[in-house]
Amino acid sequence: MSQPLRIVIGADTFAPEINGAANFAARLAAGLTERGHEVHMVAPAATYRGHGVFLETHEGQEFTVHRLFSARWYPHPWLRFAMPWRIEQNSARILDAVQPDVVHFQSHIIIGRGLSHQAVKRGIRVIGTNHFMPENMLEFTLLPKWAQARAVGLAWKAAARSFGRAEAVTSPTRKAADFLESNTRLRGVYAISCGIDARHYTPSFEPPAEKLITFVGRITGEKQLDVLMRAFAQLDKSLDAKLELVGGGDQVAHLKSLATSLGIRHRVNFAGYVDDAYLRNALTRSTVFAMPSIAELQSIATMEAMASGLPIVAADAMALPHLVHDGENGFLFEPGNVVELAERLTDVLTMPEGELHRMKRESLRIVEDHDIQRTLTTFEALYRGELVSDTIVEPIPPRPHRTAWRERLAKLRDNS
């Protein structure tokens, strides 16, 4: 049996913040701890005075978290950041105290930059994972339009420098890995799924108590939730469907106002930030999961919905087609197309029970390939300097002609 490793994981966003990168960092650290490794997380403090070294419990496992002094980025609704001018000093101090076997950073912006630079100086193996698209942060920079393209270019150059120090670079899907390579001079980026522990989610094949459409994630601009709201407003009222948005963000007030103006406010529940029990129950009792986002490098929320046995209706953008196989476990729609999204939601909500169960089973089958244990084993190999194969299990599948599956659905409805 291999010797346990001492691992430093660096993350610019971490619990109590709720987003895909933060959730993955917590699951990775917890999974590695459960396997017997000594894990040290480096992350911004959650409050102004909350910096220091703590034993914290995340995902049921206790590990050490080095919380760096942080400040709020006030254009953003919740983001906190470590001081960039102190990151080299802080990184050196932590690495000298911990003396890890490997450093694994989750973004290049501040903490990843400092840790990777100081680790290379000390001859420590560095692994980098990218969850970040600079374009997603433009609305929170307050930069004028004419300066935004240059800012994105500079951000990618910074990413290339930090990830260039890593012995291996990963991103959650092949699409995301290709995207990183195309915007930097990096080559050989591994596609390694963030993974999910499907045991924590409960599929239901009982008739749903109501026709419920659910979204889980940050309520922010790139998620395109206004598109979902307008599509929901177009559904036939006889369906008596309801919509639940689980999560928080800067667009909540705007979307509540939009729901009121569309006349659907009484049928839309803004659940806000919730605990894991509420989230999992919300998925279990849902009929269909909607993901209209155009900026998903993998989408852990979509995988959680699949592990709950839900059919998915998602934008045909970025990495979502890796998870949503059109006509098999759900449907893809043209990004931003309100009419098509409404049609695809209607297809699921009016689907015969047998066809709905087929899609539910297919979601469960597809998500099996994203088991968190496989992800942990792959990263353990990288940490030890071993060669690994690209772990995406299948390319985006060929898509059936949309008229064909619409005709099939019509026949099924006629026969039901």
UniProtKB/TrEMBL annotation:
Keywords: Glycosyltransferase, Transferase
UniProt domain Glycosyltransferase subfamily 4-like N-terminal: residue ranges: 18-198
Residue span, Glycosyl transferase family domain: 207-361
One GO term (biological process): carbohydrate derivative biosynthetic process
Gene3D superfamilies per UniProt: Glycogen Phosphorylase B (3.40.50.2000)
The organism's place on the tree of life at top rank: Bacteria
Gene Ontology MF, one: glycosyltransferase activity
Stretches that traverse the bilayer: none
Entry keyword annotation includes Transferase: yes
Protein name: D-inositol 3-phosphate glycosyltransferase
